[in-house]
Known about the structure:
Blueprint: H1 9-23, H2 31-48, E1 54-58, E2 62-66, E3 80-82, H3 85-92, H4 98-104, E4 108-110
Parallel strand pairs: 1-3
Antiparallel strand pairs: 1-2, 3-4
Helix pairs in contact: 1-2, 2-3
Protein name: Sterol carrier family protein
Organism: Glutamicibacter halophytocola
Domain Bacterial SCP orthologue: 31-122
Amino acid sequence: xxxxxxxxxxxxxxxxxxxxxxxxxxxxxxxxxxxxxxxxxxxxxxxxxxxxxxxxxxxxxxxxxxxxxxxxxxxxxxxxxxxxxxxxxxxxxxxxxxxxxxxxxxxxxxxxxxxxxxxxxxxxxx
Length: 126
């Protein structure tokens, strides 16, 4: 079953491009653009790795469930991935590897299915 997208794909890709440009010294990114880039890439992950066994949290911008497996319905999910927005965008665009992100101490992944390395990057930027 396909996920219901809330972020327009063209606007989402534009937000990711703007974020990538800001990282290359082209200025500071506005918070609404950062939020759109995060939400777009969370939706992209959910559409490529459909399921409900892993919850990916990028506070304060968004959360999604993905990866096939046992469905979680109440309380704290057994498989949770949480990180800051900048790290999520770096992972989703291939600027940072999963192994390197774990070394930062900013990526928190718990549970047997919480390794997203097989699903990343979602899009690549030079």
